[in-house]
Amino acid sequence: MKKSSILLLTLFVLIIVSCGKEDLNKESASHENLVSISEIKEAVETQLSKGEVFYWTEASDKMLWSAGMHSDSVFAIGYAPEANYDIESNIHTLDIESSEWKDAKSNILALILEKEQITREKKLTTKDILPFGEEKVFPQIIVHLTNADLIAELRASPNVRFIEPIGFSLEDQLATTRSNEGCGSSPNYSINSNDYTTISPSTKKAWNFDTHSIPSAWRQSKGDNIRIAIIDTGASDYQDNLGSQFTSGDSGGRNIQKYSTHVSGSWWWASLDSPHDQCGHGTSMAGFAAGPRGTDGNATGVAYKADLMTIRAVKDVLISSSSERVGTRNALYLAGGRSDVKIISMSIGTPFYSSTVADGIYYANNQGKLIVAAAGTSLSWTSWYPVIFPANMSQTTAVTGLRDNGYQKCVTCHSGPQVDFTIVMERANDDDRTSISLASTTNQPKYTGGSSCATATVAGIAALVWAENPSASRTSIINAIKQASEFYPYRDGSFGWGQINALDAVNNI
Predict the structure, then answer these.
(1) What is the pLDDT of residues 483-502, one digit of tens each?
(2) Which end of the chain is more exposed for a tag (fewer CB within 10 A), N or C?
(3) What is the DSSP letter of 175?
C-alpha cells in the first residue's frame, strides 16, 4: 500500500475516533440529572397496576426526555395544522404534501434545528437530525434530539399532536441482552399423541381445533380468496410450507407474499431487512392462520385455502425499539393499503401506548381491515399487566388464550375488559402442551401458545367466515363471530364474548 494511502486511512480513523470520543462525552453529560430507569419503571407499573396502559402524554417533560436519553435519543413527533386535528378519522385521506401540512412540519423542523444547532455547536440540515429520513406518508417526524429544552417547547406547539421516545422499552433496559421473547424455531419431536390428529392428505390437526368446531366449519369454508396479513417477525426461508409447499395437498389455488418493513441501523448505514424470520414466531403465526393442509405430516392452519401476506416488522413479540415501532407502523400502511387484504393479525405488542404505531392502526382500520391483536405477549414475568397495546385500542379486536379447564387464562396470557374473544390453546395439567404449528425448519411441528397463538387462530376463523360472503363488511364479520361466541349476547369483564364456535360463525354470515 502506498504511503499516501496509509496516511489518509490513518487520518480517517483518527477523525472517527475523535468524533466518537466527542459524542461519548456529550452523551455522558446528557445523562446527568435524568430520571432513573427504576423511577420510570415505578411510574409505568403504577399505571399498569390500575389496569391501564402507560401513555407518554402523562409523563413529565423530564421523564419523557430521560426515557429518550436512556435509549437511542430518537423521538417521534406527530404534527398537524392544529394539534387537535382529527387524525383518527381522516388519516387515510391526508395529503401531507399540501401547503398546510408542509407548513406545520416546517414550523417544527425550524424550531428543532434552531435549538439543536446551539447544542451541537454547528450548522445542521434536516438530514443531520432525521435518522430514518423524511416521512413520505404519515404526519410524523422521527428525529434525533440532544437539546432537553425542546421537549417543553414542542409540547407547547400548536402543530404538535404528540412527542414520544420511540426507542425506550423497559424490557430492553432491564435486561443485559435483548429478551427475544416469544422466539423459538426448533421443532418438537416429542409432541404428545393426544395433542393432534392425523388427517388427510397427510397433515396434523391441532387438538384445540375441535374445541372451536373448526373441522366442522371446513365442510363449508376453507378461507378461499381471502388474504390474511401477518405482521410479525417474518416467515422463515427454510420452512417450505410457507414456500414451495404452500399450495400442497388440499391447499392449491392460492399464494403467499413476503415483505419486510423492519430496518436495521439508521442514518446512512440503514438497510431494510429481508422478510426471512430469524425468530420463529412469525413463522408459527402464519402457520396457525393459514398453514397448508399438506402431504408432509406438518401442522395445518385454520384457513388452509386462504392467501397469505407475511410482513417482518419486529425482531420478537415486543414492539420496543425505534425500528420496530416505525416498522410496525409501515407494515400497517402496507397491509392497510392493499385491497385484497381483509384481515391483519398482530400477535405482537407493548405495555406502552405508541402514537407512532396508532397512526398506522387508524389508517388500516379506516381502510376496512379487521385488525386482530394479542391481549398480551409471552412475558411470564409481566402476565399481571392489563391488555396491552395495540389490543387495547377500540380499532382492534383483542384475543387472549385459555387453558382447557374453563375460563382460566393461559400462564402467559393477559385478560381484561378490552378482550373480545378467547381461544383454548393450553392444557390445564401441563402448560408446555399448547397448540401446534410450523417450526422454522423441517416437516415436524412445534408447540406454540399464548395470546399469540389465540390471535392467529381467530384471524384464520375470520377468514373462514369472510370466505362465505366476500362482499360482507368488517362489521358483519365481527358480528357473525360475536353471535357464535359462548357468552353472547352478554360480555364478560375479562374474556369478552368468550370462546368462538367457528361453524356457527360461518353459518351466521
Answers:
(1) 999 999 999 999 999 999 99
(2) N
(3) S
Residues 144 and 265 occupy one common structural domain = no
Among the listed residues 212, 103, 93, 111, the one whose alpha carbon sits nearest the alpha carbon of residue 156 = 111
Close Cβ partners of 235 (under 8 Å, ≥ 6 residues apart)? 242, 256, 258, 275, 276, 277, 282, 283, 286, 310, 312
Q: Which domain holds residue 98?
A: 45-168
Q: 188 lies in a domain?
A: no
Angle separating helix axes 450-468 and 474-483, nearest 10 degrees: 110
Residue whose grid cell is 455547536: 121
* pLDDT tens, position by position, 464-486: 999 999 999 999 999 999 999 99
Q: Are residues 416 and 277 in the same domain?
A: yes
Say yes or no: 148 and 217 in one domain: no
State the burial class of residue 257 (Cβ atoms within 10 Å of its Cβ: 0-12, 13-18, 19+): middle
Q: Is the pTM of this model over 0.70?
A: yes
CA distance 197 to 154: 59
Q: Locate cell 413476503: which residue?
A: 258
| Helix, strand, coil shares, percent, the chain, to 5 | 40, 20, 45
Which pLDDT score, from 0 to 100, does residue 409 have? Answer: 94
Q: How many domains does the chain have?
A: 2
Residue partners of 392: CB distance under 8 A and separation at least 6: 53, 353, 386, 398, 416, 418
Considering 105, 135, 168, which residue would you say is the last residue of a domain?
A: 168
Q: Across the chain, what does the average pLDDT equal?
A: 91
